[in-house]
Amino acid sequence: MAKEHKKDKKTEKAEEKKELEEEAEAMAETAPEALPEVPEEEEEEELGIELPFPKATIVNMLRQHLDKGKQIKGQVKVEMNLWLGKMVERMAKKMNDHPYTYVDGSMFWDAIELYENVAEIEKEKERIIKELESIKSACDVLISEVDRKFVIRKTFMHELSNQIKEAKAEEKKE
Q1: What is the pLDDT of residues 5-51, one digit of tens each?
Q2: d(CA 105, CA 127)
Q3: pLDDT value, residue 32
Q4: 3-state SS string over 92-152?
Q5: CA distance 42 to 64
Q6: What's the rounded Cα separation, in Å, for the pair 124 and 34?
Q7: Rounded to 10 degrees, what is the CA torsion of 127, 130, 131, 134?
Q8: For residue 85, is it within any domain?
Q9: Is 8 a member of any domain?
C-alpha cells in the first residue's frame, strides 16, 4: 500500500510539472514578444537575398541585449545578418593574408584588433575634443584681453588725438 501511495505522489508531481510546462508554453505564445513573423524562407525569397546566418540566431542574440518588449523590424534582422556576414568575410580575408596553412589565435586577434580598439579610439577622440575645448576657451580669454587692451589704447589714442587737435586749435588762435 505504501508503494502505491508513493507512485501516486510521483505521478501527481509529474502531471503537475507537465501542466506547468504547458501553461508556460501557452503564456510564451501569447506574450507580446511572440509576434507572428513571416517565415524565413518566404521573406528571403521576396528579397532575393541569401542570408549567411540563421535569422533566429541573430534575433535571439539581439533579444539578449535589447529591453523586453522591443520589436525588431525585419529590415534590422536582415541588415544585421548581412553585416555580420561581411564582418566574417573581412576577418577571414585578413587571416588569409598570412602565409601559413593554418589559422591560429594570434592571426584571429590580429584580424579583429582594429575593431576591438574602437572603444579606445573613441575615448582618445573625447580626450582630444576636451583638450581642444580648453585651448579654445584659453584663446577666447586671450582675445577678450586683446580687445580690452586695444579698446583702452584706442580710447587713449582718441583722447590723445583730441588733445593734440585742441592744442593746435589754441595755437592757431594765438
Answers
A1: 555 767 777 777 667 666 656 655 555 444 444 454 555 555 667 89
A2: 32
A3: 47
A4: HHHHHCCCCCCCCHHHHHHHHHHHHCHHHHHHHHHHHHHHHHHHHHHHHHHHHHHHHHHHH
A5: 25
A6: 42
A7: -170
A8: yes
A9: no
For residue range 89-118, what is the model confidence (pLDDT) as tens digits? Answer: 999 999 999 999 999 999 999 998 888 888
Torsion angle defined by CA atoms of residues 75, 77, 78 and 82, in that order, rounded to the nearest 10 degrees: 130
Cell numbers standing for residue 164: 593734440
Answer for the pair 99, 67: CB distance below 8 angstroms, yes or no. no
Written as nine digits, the cell of 34 is 511572440
Say whether both 46 and 90 belong to one domain: yes
C-alpha cell at 37: 513573423
Instruction: Tell me the residue range of the domain where 52 lies.
Output: 19-116
